[in-house]
Sequence to fold (483 residues):
Amino acid sequence: MPLRVYNVLTRRKEEFEPTQEGRVHMYVCGPTVYDHSHIGHAKLYVSMDTIVRYLRYQGYTVRYVQNITDVGHLLDTGEDRIMKGARRDRLEPMELVERYTRSYFKDMDALGVVRPDISPRASGHIPEQIALAQTLIDKGHAYEAGGSVYFDVSSWPEYGKLSGRRVDEMQSGARIAVLDEKRHPADFALWKKAEPEHILQWDSPWGRGYPGWHAECSVMAQKYLGQPFDIHGGGLENIFPHNEGELAQSEAAQGVPFANYWLLAGTLSLDGVKMSKSLGNTITIKEAVSRWRPLIIRAFMLSTHYRNPVDFSERAVQAAGKGWERINSAALRVRRRLGSAPDGDADPGFHDFSAAKRAEFLDHMDDDFNASAALGVLHEFTRGVNTLLGAAEEPTRGTLEEADGFYRQLAGDVLGILSEEVADSSSAEREAGLIELLIELRSQMRESASWAEADRVRARMKDLGVVLEDGPEGTTWRIAEEG
Ligand SMILES: [Zn+2]
Fold:
């Protein structure tokens, strides 16, 4: 089945065809680094990461660019987020953004989110953003007023095509003082005049100032991915004004489409309530991973289709955790049994079952990256694996290798939910090697009639969950089943 994606721009599912064969250029709006990331960020970036992982699994060479917003942008209150954070933490603004950039990557690493290929920072692309504002002035799509530059929405009839909003419905959330210098309330800043106390500011043809929020994504996407590029990802909560603004100014400046496919993730609520700082109901990723294993949080995020909203609650995460453990415990048992499995090809019945489940899994992923349905297939596969492992007849090495490959590729490479114990085969192999070594030493003890020591080794290994069984053909071992 060819890959089909739901394109927010056209509001329908389309067959995915990249501009260059075999390559995908993808841009995702990154975080504003003025505080620790919250679980809403986890939902967004796990969703986007799974898309990237699947494209790579399908053989595409993906260039994944995600910006770091380290230049101040005004909150509804008129405050600048970065200056507010710097005051709160008593840090230099650049110290603040460095601290929270590192914090963000650390959180993402824990969630198994593969780092973007390029993480450009807004503060490193000021000349490009000034050039964009100048180009738009030159082309009649922007105007200067009071040291700021605004995009003129009335000059761009397509404004609103992404979010479906109409210009005459639009109200600006900005303060009255700003409204006065704008020609239309929906006009948005490409460049803002800086007050003297505004620390992050640069020279421009219009005086000292700083870029408007949408400008950075336009210039960084075009610089590193070209225009049009393939996929623009992000969160639905930023479709307006941010994504709409990016799109309008990029297309008005370059005269060609901005991005071919817009893939936007649904939002996250907390116990049924929208998560927001002002309501005080936010959970940071750090708080969440101190309570649950990070990959359980990841599995929870994938349990709903990426475009749908998801509600974060204790019960829902616990349920996702149980499912995650079932999958990982089966995958771990497969790996552990591999070392001592009898030689032989894969059992034909298991091979057919595995091939059918793999095809189902891929069909779901090809249907607009339906990881939630794919996860369901992984559960069905795990039921089959548990039957296999519980059968009287010992599965062959070939059968176990097939199961192991399924978990590694689909649960590991694509969904990113395989625990390190399973994913790190060298540790499983090392563990098996150490067990074999202890069995060998214990046999020598028994041969030299050191029965007490040999029994002690056996008892200690049992405490550690390794059961030894002495038979006529020597000693075998197995991992004690939990629960
Ligand atoms: Zn953006």
Remarks:
- The pocket of zinc ion is lined by residues 29, 217, 242, 246 (CB under 6 Å).
- The chain has three domains: 4-265, 315-423, 427-479.
- The first helix runs from residue 39 to 57.
